[in-house]
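Practice problem: predict the structure.
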Amino acid sequence: MKRSDYCGCIGEADIGKVIVVCGWVHSCRNHGGVIFIDLRDREGILQIVIQPERKDIFKIAESLRNECVVAIEGIVQNRPKGTLNFNVSTGAVELVATNLEILNISSCLPFNISNYVEVCEELRLKYRYLDLRRTRLQKNFVTRHKIAQEIRKFFNENDFLEIETPFLTKSTPEGARDFLVPSRLNHGNFFALPQSPQIFKQILMISGFDKYYQFVRCFRDEDLRADRQPEFTQIDIEMSFITEEDIITIVEKMFMEVFKVILNVNIKLPFEKISYADAMLNYGSDKPDTRFEIKIKDFSEELKNNKFSIFSSAINNGGVVRGLCIPKGAACSRSEIDEFIKFVNEYGANGLSWMKVTDTGVESNIVKYFKLAELNEIILKFNAKSGDLIILLAGEEKIVAQGLGALRIKIGKKYNFIDKSKFNFLWVVDFPLVKWSKEENKWQSLHHPFTAPENEDFVTKENIGSAKAKAYDIILNGVEIGGGSIRIHKSNIQKKIFDILNISNESAVEKFGFLLDALTYGAPPHGGLALGFDRLCALILKEDSIREVIAFPKVQKATDPLSNAPTPVTDKQLKELGICVAAKVV
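Answer:
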């Protein structure tokens, strides 16, 4: 028997048809001498009816167990009244079997597939081929495919060209460790797997391909978190003869079309824009979640003469005092407040102060240090109501921002302030061009050294700390799903930035020589953006981890439980590469 239809695609329009379906036995039930099989394939589940009169196939059906692979021929009919199943797309019909063939049997399963049960991730990934049979994950990857198709369709219709860039390339510093690939033909030399196609897409612009995109695999040898993988998929976009607004506009239109087609959700344009400085001040993060209204407020000016020494000393030493107001948070127990204090300590903060707003004023063990005018300023700035809880944190600005920003998200989740039905897009703009590295005692690019400054003529070593970049990040529901910039397209400006960053001419030529050389041959103004495709899919599907939208992800230690990679290789292979593996240094 040859398959004629997918199980999940059968409906009332197929009534009376003779069809052949193939798939896995999702479940098998014997009800009063009639056997019902739920047959599953990638498109869904179809109920099969095996009647006792068909003794030849009835006996075969009795031997079936979950995950056996079968082919079934039959006639599509309406389900009897009272037996419709509205939980599946095929719930109005069933297939009355006339022929059944077992194509393969299944061993005893390490975990249940037909009834979704929580299984430890290590086991799920070891038997990923079974895990991927689950209905939820099948849906995830069908949807991922559709998202990719819609994005490709959009860029193709807007005159972009999809061009591939190399996987075996030169090791360049881009923020994370490179994965290195030894060259057999050039002993002692190494390729690197690309962290991104940054330099090559710029070279494509110099080559005259003014609208480029690519679904590209990228590689970073770094410690993993829930939203990180050593290999991931990026949607890469680059354009010539454009401004920041041109890139922002095309990306917004792409998202509008994708969300309409995939989710039937109307995304309002244009997206909100906020500056990096405002994002850090109001949300304590450069990827703010705006699905709930709680904002951080600064009280450094109001409390600079406060008698509470923790506050006044922090401000006088160049720090800040900032806070959050939790609606109805006065009902929090002391143990909950202690939990908040312990949480911000993880971000380097020393303690946390709190006040409960009541009908008669403010209650707190630190109220005695405050003037009435100071308390009124705090209440007014928060627009605090009776029953609210005010939390204040003092210290170094970066630590206070990070601590309160993370606490804001924790509070939003804990007390269900976040509207999970929303898709809130926004752009963060006006980034600093550089950041100061205490470890290396020098300025470093906040994004990468090819990012154009807002005003290239007035950037000097003296004012580099206050220089802004032509850079922009796109945020969805508190997750950075992409970032980009206008690039430096003049070789003299690029050399100037390298000089400010203390990258010597010799070092620049060694690491980026082919790009610097290309910039001297009439490079056009250009810029672009890279979108994290895995993160985007996870957000659309409302999954907490990108591992749920990656077919074969790695676990925390960057290992693959399915294949057991990475593994040792033979001495012969190492000898061919001219490599000797040293003992691990503890």
